[in-house]
Write a structure and sequence with these properties.
Blueprint (H helix, E strand, L loop, with lengths): L2 H20 L11 E10 L6 E12 L4 E10 L7 E17 L2 E15 L4 E14 L4 E12 L2 E14 L2
Antiparallel strand pairs: 1-2, 1-8, 2-3, 3-4, 4-5, 5-6, 6-7, 7-8
Length: 168
């Protein structure tokens, strides 16, 4: 093979990869259905660094794999009561991978709502994405990274926990 033929093959391979990358995710026979979960969160900007969260997702459109997503967080404040953040918004399945015993879902989400502390009530916003591993029993394990904003502070958080899905 000469250099021109190798260039043509390389260009064709790169073009085929971009076509695959732009293809929509294949429809899965199962989804996250109704989902509820809880766990711990890590926030490097707070003290203490660990706290808790709970969330609920309900399907809005199964064909679009879109969910109404509500997130409750207890954001710690050293020496004070934690700020309780309640936000709601949307989540969507960006990609799903069928596994031998379950499925792996990559999810994007964005929420808005209120954060309440002992001294103020302010707006709260969160957005990010993560991975949900679902077993046939309905049990899930999830890890989500979000950018969390309440009042004048904004900080990234890592949420990890367990959840459960149930039929529609």
């Amino acid at each position: 093979m000469d250099a021109n033929q190798l260039k043509i093959i390389a260009i064709a391979a790169l073009l085929s990869l971009t076509c695959v990358a732009q293809s929509p995710a294949p429809a899965q026979s199962s989804s996250l259905d109704n989902w509820a979960g809880a766990g711990s969160l890590y926030n490097s900007a707070t003290s203490p660094k660990y706290s808790g969260w709970a969330a609920l997702a309900l399907p809005v459109s199964t064909t679009a794999q879109a969910y109404s997503f509500t997130l409750y967080q207890a954001v710690p404040a050293k020496g004070k009561s934690p700020t309780i953040s309640t936000t709601t918004g949307a989540a969507t399945i960006l990609r799903s991978i069928k596994l031998k015993d379950g499925a792996l879902y990559f999810v994007g989400l964005a929420t808005a709502g209120a954060a309440v502390s002992t001294s103020a009530t302010t707006g709260a916003f969160a957005g990010g994405g993560g991975a949900f591993l679902k077993w046939p029993s309905g049990l899930t394990v999830e890890v989500v990274a979000i950018q969390n904003k309440a009042a004048a502070s904004a900080s990234p958080e890592i949420l990890a926990g367990v959840g459960y899905t149930w039929g529609k």
